[in-house]
């Protein structure tokens, strides 16, 4: 079995190495990913533009390839150019952050998996939900830092890929969206549906005194200070039972959401 691994956090992000390590005993693995962070770019493509592909070395000394483009670009380049044969499976991630609900269409991680499906390759998008209550800590000087690892996500991903190897994808499923919380109370995977949304978004401007520090950066030439706005977001906390958010926030267990890229829901000939 041949597996292509990509991500949106960049080829040197720790999550992509974790994904490789999770499945390298199950298949021939090739890593092709953006040369820098491409979070929240969705399914952006660099059509008719030059892209640079470079070989590089991951922290474990293994070979990988960087692409000067988007996550979707990296999947295409990996599947159609870098690999000698098209992969049997594409894994994107492990993303450092949650990807759930209808908001997944802005995720570079999930949309790279969508791109794989458009090439006729089944895919798994994998994300790590970093629980702020248990993962943000203070050192002896009062400085905040993040303390987490990918161990549980690696184990769950390994088990899911092993099941796919043994049984294949379920009929009608193009890709899986897998989220694993750092504060797992159970490693048993819950099959879920997408939540309505993940983020509550709002726009603020530089007259918001409470958020003034967010606007303390140099302006571009000829830009006026009263032109400054920023889109902010807060993570939704309430989710319906059976949804991906409910599994992660309430049950504190991995969420596996089966998806299809065909978004058509019904025939409207009588509408």
Description:
Helix 1 crosses helix 5. Helix content is 22%, strand content 26%. The chain has six helices and 13 strands. Strands 3-4-2-1-5-6-9-13-10 form a nine-stranded mixed sheet, with helices on both faces. A two-stranded antiparallel sheet has the order 7-8. The protein has helices at residues 14-23, 71-82, 108-118, 132-135, 151-167, 244-249, and strands at 2-6, 28-34, 53-57, 63-67, 89-96, 123-129, 136-138, 144-146, 175-181, 190-191, 199-205, 229-235, 255-259.
Rounded mean pLDDT is: 90
Terminal CA distance reads 46 Å
Please describe the biggest sheet, giving its number of strands, its sense, and whether it closes into a barrel.
9 strands, mixed
CATH C-level class of the largest domain is: Alpha Beta
Low-pLDDT windows of residues:
none
Relative strand content: 25-35%
* Number of domains as seen in the coordinates: 2
Task: Give the topology string: H per helix, E per strand.
Answer: EHEEEHEHEHEEHEEEEHE
CATH superfamily of the largest domain: Survival protein SurE-like phosphatase/nucleotidase
Identify the strand order in the major beta sheet: 3-4-2-1-5-6-9-13-10
- In which range does the helix fraction lie? 10-25%
Q: How many strand units?
A: 13
CATH overall fold name of the largest domain:
Stationary-phase Survival Protein Sure Homolog, Chain: A
Q: Structural class, judged by helices and strands?
A: alpha/beta
Radius of gyration from CA coordinates: 20 Å
Principal-axis shape equals globular
CATH architecture level-2 label of the largest domain: 3-Layer(aba) Sandwich
- Summed up, the helix count is 6
